Amino acid sequence: MVKRFLGVGKVQVGLAIMLFFILVAILGQPFCTHVLHTSPYQVDYMTLGGTAPGGKHWLGTTSAGQDVLAWMLYGTRNSVVVGLASAVIGTVLTVVIGTWAGFSGGWIDRFLDGFILVFASIPTFAILFMIAGVMQNAGWLLVSLVIGCFEWSGGARQIRAQAMSLRGRDFTTALRTIGESQSHIVLSEVMPHLLGLISPMFLRLIAAGVNMQASLAFLGIGDPSMPSWGLMINWAMTQNALFRGLWWWFIPPGLALALIGFATTMINFGLDEVTNPTLSTKRMNLMRKFEKAKKLAAAKHPTHAEETAA
């Protein structure tokens, strides 16, 4: 299945984009320091007011004379790390609470289902705004915890429903009959059946975490000394970059956010093609060829009824 998954064109595009951003997150700061010999905090007084891309500054400079490429390279690490960390936290909470509720049943299921519904009805961004506003200068770990702890409820009900279905299957009933522990049944038998839900959920949470972090930074919440894509857009807005024509200041971070969302969507499409045969691109192409060949054969060799009618 892995070979088939990696052979899907959409997956290859999505993974290539994600791999690019991960490499930039890992190597961006050393590249900026040792190759470009600059940093986001370094000011080029000859470019105050902002200069277009070219020459020494590949992506131009801000109105304060700071290199935009340096901001992007440093900001990628913070944005990607927050997105991945919040996705891991959210996925763990989703799987643990959803599986526990669906497989346990009884009062535990009712209690956890109510807990999930309460979190699902909370206006997430408003709560994030208030919490992060109280905790000014919050680091990436705290921001990741806040985002992850409020982004899990959407998928928990899906996991719960699937776990409830698996709880009544013959193989789980047989395992309980022979005395297998519930934890062993969940980890060894139930969890593999949930991977089809967990994988796309994790990818969606990555994109949600990156965009949520950017939104908080755009509103000026978080550590202002930590460059990020959202903080770049925030400063571009406060300095009227759009009206001053400094497009190179806000387009790169906006494009990066869009590409993260596009990459996770492409990978999810690939997962759908692998797990759902009716959505397989190869199958659909074969069906189109078959229908075309069928029509050509019908045109060349009309049936007896068609000849009589003619």
TrEMBL record:
Start and end of every ABC transmembrane type-1 domain?
Answer: 76-268
Membrane topology note? Multi-pass membrane protein
Q: Which UniProt keywords apply?
A: Cell membrane, Membrane, Transmembrane, Transmembrane helix, Transport
Main subcellular location of this protein, as a coarse class: membrane
Per the UniProt record, which residue ranges are transmembrane?
12-31, 80-103, 115-134, 140-159, 246-271
Enumerate the InterPro entries for this protein: BP-dependent_transpt_permease, MetI-like, MetI-like_sf
Where does the record place it?
Cell membrane
Q: Which domain of life is it from?
A: Bacteria
Alphabetized Pfam families for the sequence: BPD_transp_1
Which family is annotated?
A: Belongs to the binding-protein-dependent transport system permease family.
**Protein name in the entry:** Peptide ABC transporter permease
State the species of origin: Cutibacterium acnes subsp. acnes
